[in-house]
Amino acid sequence: xxxxxxxxxxxxxxxxxxxxxxxxxxxxxxxxxxxxxxxxxxxxxxxxxxxxxxxxxxxxxxxxxxxxxxxxxxxxxxxxxxxx
Length: 84
Fold this sequence. Notes:
Order of helices and strands: EHEHEE
């Protein structure tokens, strides 16, 4: 399952509500792409990661002048396997 967090939320409703924990708990491999300084990802990603084993994690800074120095420029990618 590839889970990409949008840099900005759309509308006032939760993006996937209670569906997200169900999807991530049944997926064999979860790949998360998120900006860790943004509220939605910061509030949801830790609870996903704590239930799984991280097999790969890296962070990068996007070299785009338009977003340099903003939370949007920092990205994290994690690959998660089921915990044993």
